[in-house]
């Protein structure tokens, strides 16, 4: 028998990929809570790999044996659930096997072999394990050679139509990494070999895979799959011709799953962490109801949330990492706290808020008569430009004053006005008493002045007559005079020799000292 073998360097590349890729994918995953395989309504698996094949064809000639490795082993596998009951679905599977027969470095013959299967599938979840049973139709192209000669074999294809029975078990391995084992048994309905009138076929397949989730977006999950499959097929014609092969398929696959809503939520929670936060008064340790909390996660500030009556707020879904909590409450200093949230765990944080130092205060002013200490009613009080009046108790209160000194001006009829400085203390109402002193009554006012001529401004000896006060007096040689008058309005007549007489009106108050200068015009000649 002739023996042809092909062992390409792709085997080395595949071995390295199988060793490195799972480690890379696991390194990308964050810690998550353990999770079973779940019940995906839809999944699609796309695989690329190599096939390690060994087989023989026996006929009336010398026959042919072959073994080796071929690349470009492809598979697309799709499963859909929910077409009727949620446990019942359909599946479609398409596989392409590359086949190349070489002698040394020279290609002798080759081609592609296809497998197609479709049918119904049912599943059941038992705890963390999901079991699937399938039944359907399968077609497989199997290798055959038209000339049984070691020198010039010609690649042809045999075929098998079969009813397929299959099963698959999926189970958790570590965290969110899952495994599966599967088996398939074709029950031949019809088979053929090239140039043979009739044929029969048998075989079986078994496989295993490890699925490593890479990324989840909403209900979509993308996974990397390391897949292995063992297949044995045989074809036997009614004549003496028979062909058989053993196939080991190894490959890497991308799997896209549309997760069940509850599973997606559970897996998302497994990837996320949570935070229980409480805000309390730093002095009393009592819960600070009404405080506002804003969380900063991954540099993004969330909208503020109010704590409950216990001063608490719970965030159920947070990305793992450092979370900054910003707390604000009326009458309290802002508080900032930090906590690290781990995936699948709940972090706790207590923030203590300190009361703000008051920035405003009040002032209560009492206005009294300093002789009797009795309150002065309706006395004007001016504080920071705002005028108020005392009540029946002589009191006036002013609020919302800035902390620090403030000027207070108090006045009242018949009393001397007073201006004093008061100090406003934050958060308190300061008190001050302002005693007013009555104005002394002298009973008269004093007016004084000088009488001069408009000609060169020389002083005049003039006569001043005030009928209302029954006063008649003369100025001295310098034209000066000084008079004491009762408070009120008086008419004064001023006359001097050679000058026109003038009449002036003047009003004076008790105790006032007024200046009264007069200029007289000379008479014309």
From TrEMBL:
Top-level division of the source organism's lineage: Bacteria
Signal peptide, first to last residue: 1-27
Key words of the record: Signal
Molecular function GO terms recorded: carbohydrate binding
UniProt cross-references to InterPro entries, sorted A to Z: Carb-bd-like_fold (IPR013784), CarboxyPept-like_regulatory (IPR008969)
Protein name from the UniProt record: Carboxypeptidase regulatory-like domain-containing protein
Species of provenance: Hyalangium minutum
């Amino acid at each position: 028998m002739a023996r042809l073998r092909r062992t390409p360097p792709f085997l080395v590349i595949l071995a390295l990929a199988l060793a490195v890729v799972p480690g890379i994918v696991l390194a990308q995953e964050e810690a998550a809570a353990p999770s079973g395989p779940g019940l995906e309504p839809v999944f699609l698996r796309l695989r690329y790999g190599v096939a390690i094949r060994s087989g023989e064809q026996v006929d009336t000639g010398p026959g042919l044996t072959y073994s080796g490795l071929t690349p470009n082993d492809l598979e697309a596998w799709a499963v859909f659930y929910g077409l009727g009951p949620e446990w019942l679905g359909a599946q479609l599977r398409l596989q392409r096997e590359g086949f190349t027969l070489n002698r040394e470095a020279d290609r002798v013959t080759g081609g592609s072999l296809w497998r197609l299967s479709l049918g119904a599938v049912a599943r059941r979840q038992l705890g963390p394990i999901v079991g699937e049973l399938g039944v359907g139709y399968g077609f497989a192209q199997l290798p055959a050679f038209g000339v049984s000669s070691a020198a010039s074999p010609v690649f042809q294809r045999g075929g098998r139509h079969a009813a397929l029975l299959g099963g698959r078990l999926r189970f958790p391995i570590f965290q969110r990494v899952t495994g599966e084992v599967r088996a398939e048994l074709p029950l031949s309905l019809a088979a053929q070999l090239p140039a043979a009138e009739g044929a029969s076929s048998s075989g079986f397949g078994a496989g295993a895979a490890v699925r490593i989730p890479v990324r989840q977006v909403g209900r979509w999950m993308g996974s990397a799959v390391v897949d292995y499959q063992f297949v044995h097929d045989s074809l036997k014609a009614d004549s003496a011709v028979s062909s058989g092969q053993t196939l080991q398929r190894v490959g890497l696959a991308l799997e896209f799953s549309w997760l069940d809503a509850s599973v997606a939520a559970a897996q998302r929670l497994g990837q996320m962490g949570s935070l229980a936060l409480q805000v309390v008064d730093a002095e009393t340790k009592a819960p600070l109801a009404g405080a506002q909390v804003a969380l900063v996660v991954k540099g993004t500030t969330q909208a503020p949330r109010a704590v409950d009556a216990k001063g608490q707020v719970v965030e159920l879904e947070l990305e793992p990492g450092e979370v900054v909590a910003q707390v604000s409450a009326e009458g309290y200093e802002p508080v900032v706290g930090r906590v690290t949230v781990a995936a699948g765990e709940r972090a706790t944080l207590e923030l203590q808020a300190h009361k703000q130092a008051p920035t405003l205060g009040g002032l209560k002013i009492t206005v009294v008569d300093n002789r009797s200490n009795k309150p002065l009613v309706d006395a004007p009080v001016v504080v920071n430009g705002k005028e108020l009046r005392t009540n029946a108790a002589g009191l006036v209160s002013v609020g919302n004053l800035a902390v620090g000194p403030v000027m207070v001006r108090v006045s009242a009829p018949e009393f001397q006005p007073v201006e004093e400085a008061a100090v406003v203390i934050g958060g308190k109402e300061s008190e001050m008493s302002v005693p007013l002193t009555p104005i002394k009554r002298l009973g008269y006012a004093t007016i004084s002045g000088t009488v001069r001529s408009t000609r060169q401004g020389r002083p005049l000896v003039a006569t001043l007559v005030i009928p209302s006060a029954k006063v008649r007096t003369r100025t001295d040689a310098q034209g000066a005079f000084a008079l004491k008058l009762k408070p009120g309005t008086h008419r004064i007549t001023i006359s001097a020799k050679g000058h026109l007489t003038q009449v002036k009106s003047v009003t004076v108050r008790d105790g006032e000292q007024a200046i009264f200068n007069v200029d007289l015009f000379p008479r014309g000649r």
